[in-house]
Amino acid sequence: MQTAVFNELFPLFNAASPETLEWLMSIAVEHEYPAERAVLMEDAWGNAVYFVESGWVKVRRHIGENVATLAILGRGDFFGEMAVLDESPRSTDVVALSSVKLISISAQRFIQTLFKDSQLHHRMLQLLVRRLRQTNFRFQLRHQPPAIKLINTLVSLGDSYGTVSAQGTEIFNIPLKDLADVSDISLEEVTKIMEKLQSKGWIKSDPRNQVLYLSNMQQLAHLLVGRT
Predict the structure, then answer these.
(1) What is this structure's pTM?
(2) What φ, ψ does residue 191 adopt, rounded to 5°?
(3) Is the pLDDT of residue 35 over 60?
């Protein structure tokens, strides 16, 4: 992978110096996992930060005998940084939703790079704050109708990881149970809302190709205005 492609693919490295990018590419390790394969396990010590080159993963946590999906990440995002930054065991699992290609950077070298490049350090803080703001926004929606919670999830995924196609913004056809967990609503509610959105023509599901088209992102985003 060339430096320019690496820089464009991962927003974290937009502010990194050319020297930092060359260094990161020289130490990065590539991985491939099939769908449903565990990438990271809860309680394991953080020995690397991972970056999603392609595909989709879900972050989940065990709650008693149950498992809940906390987040869904796609191309260009990263995970595993919390255990590295605070030097503690991982608090969540990460599982491949689709076949996925990842790049990892060892914990020690990632920390060294943050210390060497102040712009990269600052960019890391910006992205962590953005995640916190997204979490706060979801919290503000906790008393909103289930449809608003689910639409917020879909719009966020489309904005963050979607690709524009002739049929709309294209994202992975995420299992309904995972959408329910992330949106903090029931599986039954997700099923009914998705059927209604499809009947309106605002989304289109293509299970065969594992694709969900957000056919009318503008209308979906409009429904969220004034909801906080």
Answers:
(1) 0.89
(2) -60, -45
(3) yes
Per-residue pLDDT for 83 more than 80? Answer: no
Write down the residue that tokens 């060339």 correspond to.
2
In the numeric block, which tokens belong to residue 28?
């990065």
The residue among 1, 110, 125 whose CA lies nearest residue 53 is: 1
What tokens were used for 73?
């990440």
Query: Based on the domain organization, do 56 and 81 belong to the same domain?
Result: yes
The b-or-e profile of 4-27 (16+ CB within 10 A means b, else e) is eebbebbbbbebbeeebbebbbee
Domain count of the fold of the chain: 2
pLDDT band (50, 70, 90) for residue 137: confident
Q: Domain limits at 50? A: 3-139
d(CA 214, CA 227): 20
Mean pLDDT for the stretch of residues 67-82: 92
Query: Residue 29 belongs to a domain with what CATH number?
Result: 2.60.120.10
Q: What is the mean pLDDT of residues 179-199?
A: 96
Cα angle vertex 95, ends 89, 99, to 5°?
140
pLDDT of residue 20: 86
Instruction: Say which CATH number the domain at 207 has.
Output: 1.10.10.10
The CA distance from 174 to 112, in Å, is 36
Provide mean pLDDT across the span 71-82.
92
Which helix (H) or strand (E) segment holds residue 120: the answer is: helix 118-140
Q: Reply yes or no on whether the pLDDT at 89 is more than 70.
A: no
Taking residue 140's Cβ as centre, other Cβ atoms within 10 Å add up to: 12
Are residues 118 and 148 located together in one domain of the fold? Answer: no
